[in-house]
Amino acid sequence: MVKAVAVDVEGDACVVRKSSEGNRLYSKGCYGIKEKEYLLNLVETCYLIEKGRVEARRKGKKINLEKFMEYALEYIPDFEIKYLVYRDLRERGYIVRMQEGGESFLLYERGKRPPAKPAFQVRAISERATFRIADIEKNIEDAENKLILGVVDEEGDITYYIAKFFRMKGEMEERDYEGKIILLNDRCITKDEGLREKLREDFVGREIGEYTQLSLMEAAYLVEKGVKVTRRGRKMSMERFIKHARKIQPDIERRLLVYKEMRKMKLLPKTGFKFGSHFRVYEENPEKSHAPYLVHVVDSSHESTWAEVSRAVRLAHSVKKEMIFAMVGGDKTKYIRLRRITP
Amino acid sequence: MVKAVAVDVEGDACVVRKSSEGNRLYSKGCYGIKEKEYLLNLVETCYLIEKGRVEARRKGKKINLEKFMEYALEYIPDFEIKYLVYRDLRERGYIVRMQEGGESFLLYERGKRPPAKPAFQVRAISERATFRIADIEKNIEDAENKLILGVVDEEGDITYYIAKFFRMKGEMEERDYEGKIILLNDRCITKDEGLREKLREDFVGREIGEYTQLSLMEAAYLVEKGVKVTRRGRKMSMERFIKHARKIQPDIERRLLVYKEMRKMKLLPKTGFKFGSHFRVYEENPEKSHAPYLVHVVDSSHESTWAEVSRAVRLAHSVKKEMIFAMVGGDKTKYIRLRRITP
Q1: Cβ separation of A310 and B159 shorter than 8 Å?
Q2: pTM: predicted TM-score of the whole model, two decimal places
Q3: ipTM surpassing 0.85, yes or no?
Q4: pLDDT digit string, tens, across residues A286-298
Q5: Do residues A136 and A298 lie in contact, with contact meaning Cβ atoms separated by under 8 Å?
Q6: Between A124 and which of A85, A242, B163, B265 could a Cys-Cys bridge form, CB atoms 3.0 to 4.6 Å apart?
């Protein structure tokens, strides 16, 4: 066994005493940086202490793993979280470096190391942190590489997600409609045979016996496309229809915006209720293919828990779908895909 | 084809004109009740109009299906929801009756009808309704039969759940522990070999290299069982430990209560984070069997959306687990199982 390398803990850096040993740590495992001396950061040092490859001293006194962790927490409040992610990736055999500023890690492709470019930027996140969609969006925008989120659960297990902007595209052509529908309260119906025929061809609405039933969402779309809607025998404008719908489903306009955008992308959105999302989305004829996407519409102030997100993505994958958050509120809708991966 | 039965719509009841026809509707399909005359309720009538078996008149004028639905909405605000559930169960070939008061339906076992006892009480719920755990509990308590919740999504598809109080029981004996653990910030670690050995046998904590890591939950349990906890070299009382933990995980006491109860039931709870729930729960050795339950701890004021619940139950089933809500806050914890069924 190699003799442990002696380092001196000073503030949030650890100085390698012998330059030759620092050099070896860097050349062999890509640990540390060379300034005047070889310096290890707290996360690296902790890992090397755990592995028995470094012996750390502070003010001349040896400091063991537990004490070192307690010490590191004073400099990095979420040290435990960062350490677990760093450690896990190292144990999987990757070269991982702390990014300047310490906010995230740079992860290299297997077998690669600097000066090669890192393939991923990895953020370590506690399961107890709030999931803010705007943060995710910013993280994706800021990352120079692909973004991975490593979410650490209370028992130290890590779930990794790749987060990225995502483009969907389908083959379901849009067209105009005419005819009449009736608004009941929280849904519409129609017995208009001409319209029903078109709806059937386009997989819009649901046939219930002798009539076709439409969700408020579908109905709103049809009304914009030229269909007339009445309630208790009286015609309704689009404005009045939306006003009514908003009482029943307060976020109808946000959802409708995304519904219409997806229709423009030639996609067919249907309710995703059974999967706990707003839409399941088809690229082509739903009788011939399954829906490859679940789309959840949120505004840019949306917050949730990581447990919810974990559940959403896991369920999506269990039914072979991608989980996509459609974030509205900026100048254009951002479609953000979260996919669980095993590094 | 049988000639449609003439009924007169009067308020929220529909009077069958000819007693002999009312009699036949009742004896053949179990529709209506006999008072002075045979009366159908609005849901039954709507279904029979749709099937072409009833022709309804109001003030002498014929009223078609759409008009009838609009009319019924004036008496039953969630008529669309109730009707879809009633219709779906009828279409599946069951005898369904509206319960007195109209709050729910009575569902008979296949092939059974009154005077047999109904097997289930079915509540029709809109996906847009708020999921309140206290309501579910009350519904279970009030139901004279097994309770089914029929949740109607915006497109009219129905997901059925059986809701019931549930008892779990395992084979994992509890025991006391001694030894020392160190609180870092959001987790504990120990290098105490005697303790680590016991924890390993009991599948508590997680081995990370040369130490064992414990979640705050597990640590709190161990501290109550006799383990000493220190932070930065100073001993901590159970009270101080919980005070610290509460800052990191505000609902720790509620979760701990349920954790301890489950341990008393000889179950082994571990984090359910990957499934979006608080605990996955084992009945026996986790190396030999999978966790049959997901347990989510909520207080009695807990509210959520049905979409979330739909997702939670669906995910649980996709990994062959039962979804259980542990409702704390009353004199004792209520364990409520929601299981998706196809009637």
Answers
A1: no
A2: 0.94
A3: yes
A4: 999 999 999 999 9
A5: no
A6: A85
